[in-house]
Specification:
This protein has helices at residues 18-31, 74-96, and strands spanning 3-9, 41-47, 60-68, 101-109. Helix content is 29%, strand content 25%. The chain is of the alpha/beta class. It has two helices and four strands; from the N terminus they run E-H-E-E-H-E. Strand 1, helix 1 (18-31) and strand 2 (41-47) form a beta-alpha-beta unit. Helix 1 runs antiparallel to helix 2 (74-96).
């Protein structure tokens, strides 16, 4: 863990390099020293149908949800969330300076019960 799940309005396709944003989020998660690289999953979902505020077609949105496993202190989670949200906002600042943009973020901890995963990625990392 974590799983970084990004939803964004389709009208941002020309304004944001989504693969670069996902790499930025992954790097930000690693920099917290709370999440090992081999456990990070980032994905993006383009929302074709959306309505923002009064329906202005120039308004865009991004929502980042991060799901993490249980067991970290509240202080560590808060520091990680602050750091990742800061990285997200820094990446989006040039766009936010040009147009209406709604940015939201949440980090949630999954319960420690009945959680399964299998991961051999460390075997393939340098």
């Amino acid at each position: 863990m974590p799983h970084c799940i990004l939803e964004y309005s389709a009208n941002l396709d020309e304004s944001i390099d989504i693969p670069v944003l996902l790499k930025t989020l992954s790097a930000g998660a690693v920099e917290t020293e709370l999440f090992p690289l081999a456990e990070i999953r980032c994905r993006a979902h383009r929302c074709e149908h959306f309505l923002i505020a009064d329906g202005n077609p120039n308004f865009g949105f991004l929502h980042l949800q991060i799901k993490i496993g249980a067991g970290r202190s509240d202080e560590a989670k808060k520091q990680a969330a602050d750091s990742i949200f800061e990285a997200l906002n820094a990446f989006l600042q040039p766009l936010s300076d040009r147009q209406g943009l709604a940015i939201s973020f949440e980090m949630s901890e999954l319960p420690a019960i009945l959680k399964y995963n299998k991961n051999n990625l460390r075997d393939y990392l340098p």
